[in-house]
Amino acid sequence: MLLSLKMQPQPFRFLLYTEWLMLGSCGLMAVYEAWQRQSIPMQHILILAALGLMGWMLPSGKTSLRYLYTAIEMGLIFYGTTLGYLHILPTLYLIVLIRSCFLFEQPGRWIVAALSLLLFLVHQVQYIQRVSPLMLPNVEQQQIWMHQVAEILMFALGLFFVSQLVSTLLAERRTQEQLSLAHEQLREYALQIEDLASVQERNRIAREIHDSLGHALTSLNVQLQTAVKLWQHNPNEAKPFVDQAQRLGKVAMQEVRQSVHALRADAIAEEPLEQTIATLVKDFQQSTGIQVTTHIDLQTVPPGQMAKTLYRVVQESLTNICKHAEATMVQIDLQQMTDRIYLRIRDNGCGFQPQIKPGGFGLHGMQERIMALQGSFRIESQPGAGCSILVELPLQEV
């Protein structure tokens, strides 16, 4: 029994001090009346002290123990009224109701309030029966009954307002606890979002380095391989390829600087999409000898992130064609229709089976870029029939 008895302090100190003030007032009145009678009301003082100590700690264990605690409080008050002071002690049932709000939910609180009102009525009837013989005139008895009815109504209103007050305080306390818990959860979510943003930023920079620097280094490798082969027979023919390799090396260095700069700030002035693709195609043709035809039809300027994504897709596609396709011709079509932009990159290379051959980092990077803009990415290819990359992006106004 004792092991299951769990106690909790009074949640609101000002209510505890209010209870003690009421108990102290009743004690002073009892002492004053007893002093006039030349006696000390020890039993009343002990009852009031017990009620005050019981309010210091409230049971929080089993429901049966909480009901027992409330019954003991009511029993002490009821026993005190049998010893006297019927007109003072019944008001202490308000203290029982205050404490019951911390022990029970709404149905239990109303049960305690109803019992308190019922016991108060019993005490008022006893008080009238004790006082009535002393008041002989009939008019005075009617006045006493009217006075008792008013006290009963005031006590009932007191029970109602006390119950509502404590219920409101408890509801506010629960709301504050929920807000504190929600604030802690939001803080944890913010940390998770920060970690996720860091991962996404690393992936974005990895794609940037792969698409830009990888393309430049691939072209540089092709130029150097061609220069090495020609150097053995005719160094003069190899010189243009060495010069092109040197220029591509400078481009690679510039891409590295841009990637490093992207770690600090991602707001740089960019050239129009048509011009950047034209420069990219020109460098590709010079470095690989593969013929590229372009058809660009844009009525509006694409948003910055979309233009950057389209450029990277074209760049990575040309890099893959140079590495794997063994193509001699590439066709790039970029068109805008109403609220969508379509990109098609087709080569006449060896092709492959998209269902069998897994995509490398470059293809995955292109897919991630397109998906980030709510677009669609599709590859059509067959062995010996070349490859087509189809991109569709919804055009969103900036």
Number of domains: 2
Report the principal-axis shape.
rod-shaped
* Amino-to-carboxy terminus distance: 71 Å
**Count of DSSP helices?**
10
Helix content: 55-70%
DSSP strand count:
7
Q: Average pLDDT value?
A: 78
Strand order in space, largest sheet: 3-4-5-7-6
Structure in words:
- Helices cover 67% and strands 11% of the residues.
- It has 398 residues and is α+β, with helices and mostly antiparallel strands.
- It has 2 domains: 7-185, no CATH class; 271-398, 2-Layer Sandwich (Heat Shock Protein 90), CATH 3.30.565.
- Helix 9 links the parallel strand 3 and strand 4.
- Helix 8 packs parallel to helix 9 (304-325).
- The protein is rod-shaped and about 140 Å long.
- The chain starts with 6 loop residues before the first strand and ends with a strand.
